[in-house]
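Q: Sequence in, structure out?
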Amino acid sequence: MMIVALVLFLLTYAALLLLPKYRAYIALGVALIFVVTRMMSVEKIFTVEWIPNWNVLMMILGTMGVVALFIESKMPALLADVIIDRMPNVMWATVALSLFAGLISAFVDNVATVLMVAPVAVTVAKKLKISPVNIIIAIAISSNLQGAATLVGDTTSILLGAEADMNFAEFFFFQGKFGLFWICQVAAIVSALVLLFLFRKEKQHIHMDEKTVVTDYLPTVLMLGTVLLLIIASFLPIPDAVRESVPINGIICVGLFLIGLLRNIIKKISIKSVIMELDAFTLLLLFGLFVIIGGVEEVGIIDKISQIIQNISGGNIFVIFSILVWISVALSAVIDNIPYVMTMLPVVTIIAQSMNIEPYVLYFGLVVGATLGGNLTPIGASANIAGLGILRKEGYEVKARTFMRISVPFTLSAVLVGYIMVWLIFKPAGMPMFG
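A: Exactly. Output:
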């Protein structure tokens, strides 16, 4: 059964890579095979053991809905307008918009962030009669950078939170140390300096004549409310038995989305566009992958992968950490980081247990590498594809060489910062610097 599961798993990966338009159907189809062959028991899906998976799906669904309402309110566009109006030239406007996109994407899906901020950049470029290519690329890769900053920043962060049992607050401060949020901010500052150097010749003056008008502030309240309630839920003295059996974060996210939806229905505001923004494709893909990874874990493949990594590294934690970071960067440049992270998180757990260490330094290295690695290539992240799609509609076909002229120095500088900081902050106590 282990051989059958491994073959199915590898075929699934290949199909996900080669047939991106059919990923959800592929994952569901293979998941059904795992269930029918009893490599994964269907009963397990409805037990307490699967609550973390349901929590992930509900969080993603809820944040999708709140983000759709937030975008529709035009508040992000107004914030972008205000930022641009305070910048002296195109170089500073590009960097400011990039940092703004990054900060927004720490709380909002990366693709949604690009769809919010990129149109503002296109408008600016048209007014100045310049190409929007560089600005859009900078916005896309910056939105990916901050995906690991918070619990709701990216699907990979939500998966990390479920595997490591981390709450919203622990992304800011973990075990009394600076968390992933601050590591991402340092990486953002360093990569912003890279952008300043790359765009040092873009000195055209800039000014916004008209600013976006916002008339609906409830979505902003819901957005801030999501963050605030997730923080409060982190600190409430809720018994472990309740946390393990109730998808608290998922209920918060879905609940606030339903409030916004209900308000629109009562006020007779169309909800069609909001519903259309809910990405059922991604939710079905995740559900299918949860079943597949569960089956792979049950037949023992996860254990085997962890043993191989330990054998290659000779049991050296720093070597294992380095392998996880840089292999994650390389693989995420060409494959979807969601199935990759979903596969590797339980591998990291097994490695840490077998070596009798806390797994967090390996968890964080994995997620930093996988989240940022997608920035290397035009197809490495959905936000990059979305940004290039916007440019294509404007008549700009961007070559991989043009994209990577910006993305490679940006990504390598950000990953290097994350790599060094994660190790220095979270390396096992008493361990030498590089051993």
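The beta strands are 173-174, 177-178.
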